[in-house]
Amino acid sequence: MASSLPPGSWDSHMHVTDPRLFPIASSATYTPHTATLDQALENASRLSLPNLVFVQPSTYGTDNSCLLDALKRVTPARGRGVVVFDPSTTSLAQLRAWHAVGVRGVRVNLKSVGTSMESTALLELLRRYMNAIRPLGTWSLQLFVDLSIVDQLELLANELNGVKLVIDHLGSPTEVKDQLVEMPGWEALQRMMRNEHVFVKVSAPYRISKDPQYHDLEGLTKALLDVRRGDGVVFASDWPHTRFEGVDVQPWVQRCLEWCQNDVELQSKLFRNNARALWDVNE
Questions:
Q1: In the chain, what is the greatest distance between 2 CA atoms, to the nearest angstrom?
Q2: Torsion over CA of 24, 25, 29 and 33, rounded to 10 degrees?
Q3: Distance CA 203, CA 177 (A)
Q4: Are 280 and 164 in contact (CB under 8 A)?
Q5: Closest CA to 108 of 130, 91, 90, 93
Q6: Which residues pair with 233 in a beta bridge?
Q7: Nearest to 48 by CA among 103, 106, 3
Q8: For the whole model, what pTM was predicted?
Q9: Which positions ≥6 away from 68 have C-beta within 8 Å?
Q10: Which residue, of 22, 84, 205, 254, has the greatest Cβ tally within 10 A?
Q11: Among 84-93, 204-213, 214-223, which is the least confidently predicted range?
Q12: 89 burial class (0-12, 13-18, 19+ CB within 10 angstroms)?
């Protein structure tokens, strides 16, 4: 099955955690399992996803040392990174140094840490991040938020000006409805995705589905694939599936291939081409 993936495919969202070498943050809300780079590379080989995007997990806070160590070892030839930082204390020189080793984005995570913000304060914070990364020219602002608050974010799609916007994990609805329009935030997400600089990660189905084969996500996933003729989606494994350890993601890969309905061009967009555009891969 995995051999059916396009050559040079990308896993646009995975994590490395090694508490023995890189202690987790005191603010962490859970203790992650160890997931080393060697294990990540073994998983990448098994899934035929040779290119990796390392995303900073919440358990490390703003200490990106573990991520940067892995990214430097993999090199930008097959890796990219999405860090976490405080825009009020992080210099442009620091961002440029991270850029040089393959970092191409910053993540704001409200969902897994249970943070809620008033709309005005949230937009102000996200604009600060956008202003911080805009000089780099190719970075993305990655958001892990509940779909229900996407209505509040729609204004940002008109203010990107050189910044890309990425929404994690299928938009992260609290509950998937058969009628997608019944999900708060869904219509706003579709409108945002019409902007060529907005992407959604087709990832982490087990966080919202109760079906181990994910058939209940067919309508949602196909609807995302339809927007911009498939130009707004990137596949990701979400390895090592934090708080869902032991999940086998291969059925999810299979579902995604099937839902592309034998459209080789769409498969290439989902697994490779869109990721190369999003993560500034020119090699």
A1: 48
A2: -10
A3: 18
A4: no
A5: 130
A6: 200
A7: 3
A8: 0.95
A9: 81, 83, 98, 101, 103
A10: 205
A11: 204-213
A12: exposed
